[in-house]
């Protein structure tokens, strides 16, 4: 598992602009939250890349992940922050957290839910977690267009601090009716001459835009706020396919 080697994970995703992402989260909060936000909660937090900046911005950071190594790495990374970063080991499918939250987010499509029951169970957990008026921000979790289109341009190489990571993604349709996909992620590491290879296989149920709208409408605890492309609140998604990293926002009633 690449997630057992958080440093390599961090290198593989070091192309991201974490500062811009953090600022965008606050923009969403300022525009759409109905409550003052003190506690923020990340689903599938991994190495908790935004924790430092979010704390600097005045929030108390909480993260949930299923992988102990990722959480230990996050704790090590942020050990010198003035306030404690709260890390919780659990599955997003069904969890309870003792502190109510004002804002929640999930990045990079890290919604690992395999069927409709798991989707319902996850949103029930989120509903219990969030205070009324709080937002749930979903990055790349709704599937606009055909996931198989990502099989083009699916290889990239990145180098940081002497570690080179070559990633290749391949997506396969497993079950058309259930919209189940298998994503095979091959990662080749060259860590200053030491070589490793990981083959990660993740199964995911694609959540299509109209299914998501129906799902939220049928619940009485969340309202749909909107979805956008390019991480820009001036660019709502209208009738489009193949949007990269679409952002969706819902709010607890
Ligand atoms: C792509 S990483 C995202 C990490 C981080 N949020 C970021 O923005 O870089 C996905 C994370 O999801 C976690 N994960 C996978 N299945 C999970 C589950 N069922 N419940 C909670 N976390 C899970 C993995 O351990 C991994 O740390």
Short description:
The chain has 253 residues and is α/β, with parallel strands linked by helices. It contains 6 helices and 11 strands.
Describe what this molecule looks like in 3D.
The structure is a single chain. The protein folds into 2 domains: 2-143 and 207-252, Vaccinia Virus protein VP39 (Rossmann fold, 3-Layer(aba) Sandwich); 149-205, Single Sheet (N-terminal domain of TfIIb). The radius of gyration is 18 Å and the shape is globular. Strands 3-2-1-4-5-11-10 form a 7-stranded mixed beta sheet, with helices on both faces. A 4-stranded antiparallel beta sheet has the order 6-7-8-9, covered by helices on one side. It is 25% helix and 34% strand. With 253 residues, the chain is α/β, with parallel strands linked by helices. The protein has helices at 6-12, 18-32, 51-56, 68-77, 116-129, 209-218; strands spanning 39-43, 60-65, 86-89, 101-106, 130-139, 155-160, 163-175, 180-191, 194-205, 222-228, 247-252. The chain is built from 6 helices and 11 strands. The model has no long low-confidence stretch (mean pLDDT 94). S-adenosylmethionine binds at residues 3, 13, 42, 44-46, 49, 64-67, 70, 91-93, 107-108, 110, 112.
What is the rounded distance between the termini?
Answer: 38 Å
- What is the CATH H-level superfamily of the largest domain? Vaccinia Virus protein VP39
Largest sheet geometry: 7 strands, mixed
Please indicate the percent range of residues in DSSP E strands (runs of 2 or more). 25-35%
The CATH top-level class label of the largest domain: Alpha Beta
| Number of DSSP-assigned strands | 11
Can you count the helices? 6
From the helix content, strand content and strand pairing, which structural class follows? alpha/beta
Which regions contain 5 or more consecutive residues with pLDDT less than 50? Answer: none
Secondary structure: helix percent: 10-25%
- Output the CATH topology of the largest domain: Rossmann fold
- Give me the Rg, rounded: 18 Å
- Principal-axis shape equals globular
What series of H and E elements makes up the topology?
A: HHEHEHEEHEEEEEHEE
CATH architecture of the largest domain: 3-Layer(aba) Sandwich
Q: Give the mean pLDDT.
A: 94
């Amino acid at each position: 598992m690449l997630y057992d080697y958080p440093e390599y994970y961090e290198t593989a995703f070091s192309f991201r602009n974490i500062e811009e992402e953090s600022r965008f989260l606050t923009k969403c909060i300022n525009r759409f939250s109905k409550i003052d936000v003190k506690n923020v909660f990340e689903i599938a937090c991994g190495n908790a890349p935004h924790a430092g900046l979010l704390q600097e911005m005045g929030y108390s950071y909480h993260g949930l992940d299923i992988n102990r190594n990722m959480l230990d790495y996050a704790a090590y990374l942020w050990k010198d922050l003035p306030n404690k970063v709260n890390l919780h080991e659990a599955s997003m499918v069904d969890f309870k957290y003792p502190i109510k939250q004002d804002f929640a987010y999930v990045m990079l499509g890290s919604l690992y839910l395999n069927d409709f029951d798991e989707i319902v169970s996850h949103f029930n957990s989120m509903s219990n977690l969030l205070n009324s008026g709080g937002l749930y921000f979903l990055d790349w979790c709704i599937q606009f267009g055909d996931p198989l289109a990502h099989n083009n341009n699916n290889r990239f190489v990145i180098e940081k601090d002497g570690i080179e990571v070559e990633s290749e993604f391949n997506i396969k349709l497993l079950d058309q009716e259930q919209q189940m996909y298998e994503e095979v992620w091959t990662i080749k590491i060259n860590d200053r001459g030491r070589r490793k290879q990981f083959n990660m296989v993740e199964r995911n149920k694609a959540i299509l835009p109209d299914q998501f709208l129906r799902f939220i409408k049928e619940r009485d605890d969340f309202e749909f706020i909107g979805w956008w492309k390019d991480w820009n609140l001036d660019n709502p998604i209208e009738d489009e396919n193949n949007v990269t990293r679409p952002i969706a926002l819902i709010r607890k009633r």
